[in-house]
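Suppose you are handed only two things: the residues of a chain and a line of SMILES describing fe (ii) ion. What would the bound structure be? This form records exactly that question and the answer produced for it, so the two can be stored side by side and reused later without any lookup.

QUESTION INPUTS
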Amino acid sequence: MGARREDTIDDLHAGKAKYSNIFNYPTVSWADIGAIGWLVDGAAIQNQVMLTRTSYGPYSRAMVKICKEESFHQRQGYEIILHLANGTPEQKKMAQDSLNRWWWPSLMMFGPSDKNSTHSQQSLAWKIKRQGNDELRQEFIDKTVPQAEFANLTIPDPDLKWNEERGSYDFGEIDWNEFMNVIKGNGPMNKSRIDARKAAKDNGAWVREAANAYHNKKKKRAEANQSAA
Ligand SMILES: [Fe+2]
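ANSWER OUTPUT
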């Protein structure tokens, strides 16, 4: 809080700002647009629905609108996946392939286990977060597995199994080395994503300059009119 927009952007471009792991994976097929909406927006919503009850009022109120928008993305994504999964063998293969690639990175979006998360306890104590990372991840898995089954797709986790006693799915080990690596800037697309952002800023410099020049010209003209009157 209190940071200047320009500084935040500079930090991002210099590789100093952390951002979600998920933006550093490649999108290689149309099915990815479906899988991203279904899984990535789905995981985001899991967090954001909780944040509608965060103790910080402005954030909580903004989240209500954001959740409406995001749930539309999620449904649109699942709709794409359903169409592909019920299409030709090639289309079904595309859907399965994108599920295979996006499943684990989506689970990582919830962050490390609460046992290893530095900020979880403080955020929960202040009610900034109302649920821990592990609880949110488990809820996401429990609601997403039946959606995959309905589409006749296979979750890429041989250890995934319904646990009658817990009333939840048990699941396999998450590769936290991969997660840490991506967060540190060494994921498959980190460099390319940041390069694209830098290029957009450089290539847009003339637009900002022109807008400033126009603003100054208008201001000068208004001042001249003022003193003439
Ligand atoms: Fe979205």
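WHAT STANDS OUT: DSSP finds nine helices and two strands in the chain. Residues 41, 70, 73 surround fe (ii) ion (CB under 6 Å).
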